[in-house]
Structure formats: C-alpha cells, structure tokens
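worker-03 picked up job from queue 'complexes'. Input manifest follows; two sequence lines, order preserved.
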Amino acid sequence: MRDNYVRIFDTTLRDGEQSPGATMTSAEKLEVARALARLGVDIIEAGFPAASPDDLEAVRRIAVEVGNPDDGTRPPVICGLARANRNDIDKAWAAVQHAARPRIHTFLATSEIHMQHKLKMTRLQVVERVREMVAHARSLCADVEFSPEDAGRSDPEFLYEVLGVAIQAGATTLNIPDTVGYTLPDEFGTLIAGILQNTPGIEACIISVHCHDDLGLATANALAGIRAGARQAEVTINGIGERAGNTALEEVVMSLATRPNQFELTTGIDTTQISRVSKLVSNYTGIVVQPNKAVVGANAFAHEAGIHQDGMLKHNQTYEIMRPETVGVSVSKLVLGKHSGRHALKARLVSMGYFLEEAETDKLFERFKALADKKKTITDADLEALISDELYQPREMFALEGLQVACGTMGMPTASVRLRDPWGKQHVQASIGTGPVDATYKAIDAIVQVPNVLQEFVVHAVTEGIDALGEVTVRIQAEQPSLVLDAQSEVDQPRTFGGYGADTDIVVASAKAYLSAVNKMLVAMGQYGPVEIAATETVGRVSLPGRSSGHG
Amino acid sequence: MRDNYVRIFDTTLRDGEQSPGATMTSAEKLEVARALARLGVDIIEAGFPAASPDDLEAVRRIAVEVGNPDDGTRPPVICGLARANRNDIDKAWAAVQHAARPRIHTFLATSEIHMQHKLKMTRLQVVERVREMVAHARSLCADVEFSPEDAGRSDPEFLYEVLGVAIQAGATTLNIPDTVGYTLPDEFGTLIAGILQNTPGIEACIISVHCHDDLGLATANALAGIRAGARQAEVTINGIGERAGNTALEEVVMSLATRPNQFELTTGIDTTQISRVSKLVSNYTGIVVQPNKAVVGANAFAHEAGIHQDGMLKHNQTYEIMRPETVGVSVSKLVLGKHSGRHALKARLVSMGYFLEEAETDKLFERFKALADKKKTITDADLEALISDELYQPREMFALEGLQVACGTMGMPTASVRLRDPWGKQHVQASIGTGPVDATYKAIDAIVQVPNVLQEFVVHAVTEGIDALGEVTVRIQAEQPSLVLDAQSEVDQPRTFGGYGADTDIVVASAKAYLSAVNKMLVAMGQYGPVEIAATETVGRVSLPGRSSGHG
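worker-03 finished. Artifact:
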C-alpha cells in the first residue's frame, strides 16, 4: 500500500510558534498559511485552538480563507491540534470545520516517563482514553491524526497496542514523534519499520514522522522514518520550534529532491518558493537563520554570491549539489533603481510572487521611491524588507510620528518621541537611556505605560553596504504577562511578542520594531493602555534613567 | 584493532575559517586554539600554511604556544593542511614542526568530476601523486593524514586503491570527506565499512570522517561513519565552514555522550567548556548561532531559562535529554552588581575559566565598573562580551577617541568622529549618511581613506533588557581585496575581515566593530593607509552622501 508520495505536514504555525518569542499575530499567521499553500504543503497545522480564544480564531480564519481557495485548486488540509480530551477536540473541530479538507490531530503520551510524571495514568487508562477520544474526533471529522507523544522513548510493544486501538477507533494518520530529539536514525527507522510490521490495521493508514533536533539529527531521523515506510513528514520552515527545533522542511524536501535515486519519492513542494517563505517566517517570528544553515542560510550557496565567481569554479558541480535557483535564491541581485517606475516595481513584485492590492502597491511605491533616493540600487531583499515593514504590520494602536535622537561617546544618549494614540491624540516624550535605542524605548514606554521586558533585540543589514536597509526584530514580554496554554507540558506559559521594522536608520527601525511588538501586546491584552492616555496630552516630561522601567 | 575512543579533530581554524567573513587575526586564532586545547580536542588543524606567509606564521605560533604546554599536560596534535605538492607540504612542516606532536594533512581529489574538471589528471596520475607526496610528508613527519577529496562521490574500488597506496607510503590517518555534503547516513556508513574491509593495510591506521551539512545531514553522516569503525571525527565549533558548514563538534560529542549505550564510545572533550568556546568562535568570526541550533543555540535549553520555570516541568527529563550544566550553560544568571569589587570580578572570571594577566584584569575591571553604573546586574554573558571587546582586539591602528551622532525621522543623520592614527595624531571628521551607522562609517572612511564594502552587519543584545550591552559584528572587504588561496578550489579568493564591538550604545558599538575590522584589513594590507594621513591633521570637513563611497 505504500505509494511514492511523501505528504508534507507543516507545523510552523503550531510547533514552530511554540519557540520562545515566535508568537505571531493572526494577520501574520494568515499570511504564513497563504505562503505555505503556495509552497505546496499538503497539510497545514494551523494552531492549538484550545490554547485561547485568539488561537481558535486564528485557526478558524486560516480554515476559512486558506482552506477554501476560490481559484479551483485543491486546497491544503487544515489541521488543529487537540489534547486527548473532549473540550480540546471540540474546539479544534470548531476551528477547522470551515476548511474544505479539515483534520483533527489529537495526542497522548505513551512513554513510561511521561505517563508516570506528566499524565499520572496507567497503560490501561492511556489505551482507554485513546480509544474514546479518537472515536470522538472521528465522529466529528473524517480525517483524524493520532500521535503517541514521546514515541521515541516508548516501549514498542505498547506502541503497537495503542496505535492499533487508535486505528480501530478511526484514526487515518498515525504520527510518530521523537518529542525530545533523543533517537538516532537507525533506531528511529527501526521503530517505524516495527510499527508497520506489528500494528493491526496499519496498512490502511498513513504513518507520519515528527522529529526534534536536540542532537542535530532531526532531518536524518525523518528521512530514516520515510525510508522505513512513513509517507508524511511533520516539519517547520527553518526548523523552528521549541528548544533546538523541529525537522526543517527545506532539508527533508531538498534531500529527497537531490538524491532521487536513493529515495524514489516525491513531494508536492514547489522548491523555488523555499527561500522566500524562509525569509517571511524569519521576519515574522524574529528567529534568525544562521549563515551556515543548510539550504536557506545566507552562505548555503556562497560560491554563487562571491565577487570573483566567474572562473572560481571550473565546473558547477565540483562543489555544488543544488542550484540556488532551485530553492528560489535570486542569482541576479540588482533589479531596480531611482528611475524605475511604478510599472517596473509591480512587474518585479509579480515575478517575485507577490500579488498586492492597488492601494498596497501605491504605499509600497512611495516607500520604494524614498529608499531609491538614499540607495543606488534596490534589490529583491530590499523589496521584501519593505513589504514586511509596510504591509504586514499588526493593527496599529500607537503610531510613530516622529523621533529625534542624539548619542555617542559623550554620554547621556537622548531620544524624543512623538506617537499618535488609538484615538488620534499626539503624545511627546523625551528620555535618557544607556544608548539611543534604550532612550527611544524608554520614551515610548513613558507614553504607552505598559511595562514590559525586552527579551531579544537583533539588527541586521538587508543587503551589502551600510546604506542598506537595516532590519530590526525585537521580542518583548509584558511584566504581567498574559499566559497561553502549552499543549504538551499542560502549563500556562507567558506569551511573548515579536516586532519587526525596517529603515535605513537603525534607530528608527528599532523604534518601529518595538512599537509593532508593543501594539501586538496591547491587542493581546485587550486594552489600549490606561484610559487616561486618551484624555490628556503629555508633552515634554523628561524621563531619567534609574526610574522604574520595564526594561532589564 | 578498533578501540572505543573517538579522536576529535577540530578544523574551526582551517575549514571553519573558510566560511565567508570568518577570517580571524593571528591573535584571535591563537586564542581559539588555546580554548580548543582546554576543551580537550585531540587534534587542532590550525590552518593552511601555503595560503600566505601570514597563514604560515599563525600556524607556527599555535604550534609553538599551544603545541608545547608548560604545565606537563599532554598537548594536542597541531596539524597543517597541504595540497599534494612539495611546496605545500614543506610549508606545512615549517609551521607545525615546532609542536611537540606535529601532523601534516595532505589531500587529493578522487572523484571523477574533480579529477576531470579540477585536477585534469587520470586515475593513474592521481595514484602516483598520492604515493609520492604522502612519502614526502612522511619523510618529514611521523604523523601523516591523507584525504581523498570528494570521497563521497568517488568510485569505492578506486578509493580502496588510493588509500592502500597512501598507507604503503606512510599515511597514519585516512580521512574520508563528504566534501559537498551529498551522502546519506546509510551510504556514508557503508562507504566507511567498505573501506575498512577492502583497503590493504587499513588495520594499522585510524579512519576519520569529515562531513558537510548541505542537506542537514553532517552529524548523522559522521555518526554513521563512527558506527562503521571510524575513530576520528573532523568537526568545527558551531558547525561553521563553507556553504552550510561542517559537522558541529558539539552535536557529535553530545550525541555520543547522551546515548552511551548505543555507541559505547568516549571522547576526550570536557563538555562543560562547549558553551563558552561556541560563544568565543561566534564573536571572533562574526557568524551568529541561530536560537534553534542544537546544543549551543540560545533556545536549546529554553525550558531552563523561562521565567516560569518552576512548576513548568513535573520532572526534568520529561522534555530534556541533556542538562544545560553539562555543556556549560550557566543556570544562575545574575552574578555581579555595582558594588562588586575587583576581587569578586576576578573570582567570577576564574570560575568561568578565564585566567587573565593583572593588567588585563585592571582594564576589564574599569569597563566593568562603567557598565555597572549603567546596568543593575552584570551577567556572565555581559562579562564575556566585555572580554571580547576589551582584550581580544586586533593591534590597534586607528583608535576611536570620540563619537557624536544625531539621527531620527527628520532626516540628515549626522556623525562626528575623532580618531587617533597609528602615529598618535588626532583626526576629526563629520559626515551625513542614510542612518547613524552609515554616517559614522562614512566619517571613519573619510579619515582612514581605504575604500571597502560592508558585507554584513549584525547587532544583538547580550542579555535581556535593552539597557544591556549591544554586540555588533561586521564584515568588510577592501575594494581592492587582498586575495588568499583556497586549498580546495585552488583559486585566490578575496579576504574579508570581521570586527566586533560591544557597548550599551549600539552606534558606539558599531563604530568599534567597524574600526576593528578596518584595522585588521590595514594590517593584512601591510599599510596604514595613505602616508599623508600621518602628516596632516584634517578637521571638520563635512562628507556628503552621494560622494564616491566604498559602501554599497
């Protein structure tokens, strides 16, 4: 029954979003889901609807808008995660049922250590719960996936039993997670082969692999499982996820594509979209990709980018096993300049795969002209940064109207900030800080007045040359954090918020990124900050360092 | 004859340094070599001495200073790379012979594609060259390693023949490289097993594995080779290297350590040093480690770092297969404050593994007090950033004496810079740029007058809170780049220079990082810039954007 098609199940929006700080807004999640659909993934795990009403709504929107394409193409399956209880399963169904092809994914741990310390359940209780909950899910939805959590450390004989019960109860896909990234490729392949051989009823189901990278073996383990007969791989873009992350979509897909004779397996992925989706997810989550990351790192195809590239290689394949074009890395870098018109911009965007509304194109063209005044050549990377900065920002609560900064080795870095609040009022504040960014953030805090802790701050130049756009990603957490339920540890975890900004001035980009994170935090907290902000206009109060600040 | 000890051959300073921009100064290389010796690596591949006189000298210094410890401990083997020709081998020997335990590592490609397109040699010619050059190396040095380049794509039968000849000629270690990261774990394990079975004389030699991560499989391939009988692994810290990089030391070592029953193999690595060496290499090379990197990523042990950590896990091992302490991640974060004295600082440094000279401790204490005035608590990460910024800087050509910057949304970001040149003269310049960093760099350029292209620019906060130190790493390349010979492609490649700076003001840190890269470039170019710099003092000329600048 094993066909030669490997289904790509992307869990960037669920397991990937569980990485510290990877929290995305509903709008960002929707955009990522659209990109995943264009990429050709078979199943999108859109979230964990029971975590919070916001999470449910985000999954529902994706089910409605990405799970029902109006262009006649076959939509991806939209999947929601649920622990093995009625409430979770009902909420998952409430969210995904709007998709043309919905799936409920439920799980229960089967390793001794998890059953004993986390679940406090006996083997018998686990078997009964699985039977009951998979049956309940199946009563709602024809497509049900079941995962025995921590399968990598479970007793194989017990696994066969639990999986057999899940199949009897109606599961159609059985996912085998190496939850803690503990197994070695041979072990994991043997586990999958054993399951295929010993589980009653397995021939009618799809086996799936779900690996973690704690020992750097996630891709090898997933491939070993696929070789042993698994036909679904659970992956994330850039391999993001808790701890060392999940199997990277791009590594599994490109391994299968680069070694066709070894695998004789195909996927539905349009590999030329890989580079763009990687960048999108990195921007939205604020999780950087290291230069030496396989397939999507900045140096992965370094031989191509070098100034002395011609003549450097006597034959392409001497040191290259994939062509950069295959994964959508644009080889020609210079695209547009100061004199390029709106039409040229639009044509370039379309060829890059962006289909924008007229109003969006107008906005972007304005930014493009401003940038072209400062910078001789505008590259695809510049355009992507502008798109992220301009179009995919959260609903604006506070808007940056002006910023003025003085800093240097003489001390007393000072920032003056003017913001417009949600009611249209202007606020001005000045502050001193330990540096220009600290001063700016303290001035913003003095207006917004919702204390938070800055957890991460990264700036990088988009292209070569320091006159390039600087991209800033930040991650903050409220001092009184809103909590979100973690599906696996079953504990409420503090929510963190990422923000993104791009500008040729990195202090301005830092202000934008921070404000975008703060705005997300305010939306999530369901408040616009203390009411008095709207009532009074505060101008000119100087905030001194040493005051009780949310930072640090 | 196979023992159960896996030799760790670290090539961070050779293959790792070939990553774009990873160029280190001799002082930095020496510091990394010292750290590798403390880490317990068995062999340090210190460089490619034939690349340039500077490279030879750097390897020689490491051979002298790290290859001959004065404390009675067994020193690591110091190894130099050489192509299979007399000149390279003689230069490698000239550099490594000063070590107590020297090694020459020579290589020649054996795959059809390399022999045909790169070497333009027949199989017979390759065999004869190997015989001759390995014998020559062995006439100089008792410890000779030979690598058949691109072994992963070579005809196994031909490999057995070439390796047999190398053994006859005196090779003691045979390294099997998957040069282009093409093989799958099963394939690579089979290749190693085949070599062990079919190569005449192999039982007296050590087999080594050298894998690349183009498909994300470097660690799995190395482990498959080790399982098949290899007893040396060639690795780099953080997995840096050309394209997607090499096998990561930390992943191989921690896989062996975490799954002892699967491997029954040991290494000589003190795993508690891993985190510190990872940070050192990241700082010196400017190559960031992504948060979801196995073992050394910021999130690898995220469960530990969370604010709500207590109660989050019902049992440590539920979601954790390694303890963070095992790899030297400090669990207690707060260490020192404003009132800590010199003694407390010194004690903390010693416990972190730093043994500084008195004068260095004095310098560091000064910086520590200045930082403690701005920031409530000083963490280990802060101290490491200060050490990198203060102690391991290149020989100073131009020194930053003052910087003043104004920027914001109003436009015309302006920087005034005061530098002291190598002859002690002060120079002042002001410049306008597209942002504060661009303006600063243009002002520095106006003084130094050696045009260059900024290739990479990254800032990140050292610890939580934006009042934290900001670390900046940059990478530049001269417009007229000095070239360095690449051992494998045999082509001169442009040299790039990394710089590092840390300050609470990211614009100041950016200036320091840029100046440190510029100083490295000047040293490498063997010049201090145009002579007239020394003769005249230029003050106050405003440099306008749009002038012919080296940037972008």
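worker-03 released lock.
Chain A touches chain B through 128 residues (CB under 8 Å).
Chain A has a mean pLDDT of 86.
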